Amino acid sequence: MIKQAIIPLAGLGTRMLPLTSVMPKELMPINGKPNLEYILDECIDAGVKEFIFIISQKKLSIKKYFFNDNFYRKILKKKKDKRVLKEYKKIKKYQKMIKFVYQNEPKGTGDAVLKCKKFIKSKYFLMLLPDDLIIRNNCSKEMIQLHKKTNGSIIATKRVEKKTVSRWGILSIKNKKKKYFQIKDVVEKPSIKKAPSNFAIIGRYILPTKIFTEIKKLKPGQGGEIHITDAIRSLIKKENKFYGNIFTGKYLDCGTLSGYINSGIQIFKGK
Ligand code: G1P
Q: Residue 152's pLDDT is what?
């Protein structure tokens, strides 16, 4: 069973400056609710019981958001405001499920995942990139179902426009079925010429604990970072089974300012 989810939150958010100079992008509200809470709610609905947040000293406000008990208690002591009480209860629910690890240098997703090694209890765990929201259908739930069916590792994927392939990790396909396929290979941010398909990795992964050993062996890749994509590639080369889950929900890119604004509009409309 997949009960733990890792969420890398140590990124600097440069694509969202100047807002991110004072506020983590993951706390920026989308239709009245922080981006990160959408991710947490998706996971909880899919049966996740524990979150490991990878933050940095620069992003301690994420910790404060979930562990600000004194602040709430003081307000509630003065007046039992129903709305505040409801919000506090919600925060307490999340709080019980969250652990923190630190990545103080932005060395990439692979490095972030490796920092969680000591906390992972089962053979597989979920990893979600909070820039990527998927609404309407629970992508994590779909992936857990596909994991149960295949006994393999799973990556969320969707077709993207060919001209944008260099922005994503791109999958090479084997045995395509209607809603999923086996992954033959994966390449991080290829040129249009080198892209093996236009199926892009979207930020949801079910990974095996074996991945930690592969990450340790990696040298910095694309952009000087340790990429989870490269560790996945090594595992595929060693005959580990990875499947692309062509998810049915709607993808919203929250990692850029225009994407962030659009996400708010889409979620508002979808209500
Ligand atoms: C990361 C991954 C990439 C993936 C993308 C999805 O890239 O490295 O493989 O396609 O997330 O959003 P980043 O957005 O950090 O550049």
A: 98
203 lines ligand 1 (CB under 6 A): yes
Backbone φ and ψ of 220, nearest 5° = -55, 135
pTM for the predicted model, two decimal places: 0.95
CA angle 115-117-122, nearest 5°? 145
Q: Of how many residues is the chain composed?
A: 271
Residues 167/151, Cβ–Cβ less than 8 Å:
no
Distance from the alpha carbon of residue 173 to the mean position of ligand 1, in angstroms: 18
Q: Are 129 and 109 in contact (CB under 8 A)?
A: yes
Residue from 159, 164, 201, 260 whose mutation best tests the ligand 1 pocket (most atoms within 8 A of CB): 201
pLDDT class for 271, splitting at 50, 70, 90?
low
Confidence of residue 219 (pLDDT cuts 50, 70, 90): very high
**Cα angle: 248, vertex 133, 251; to 5 degrees:** 40
Q: Distance between CA atoms of 183 and 196, rounded to whole angstroms?
A: 11
What integer is the mean pLDDT of 190-206? 97
Cβ of residue 169 lying under 6 Å from some atom of ligand 1: yes
Residue 170 Cβ contacting ligand 1 at under 6 Å: no
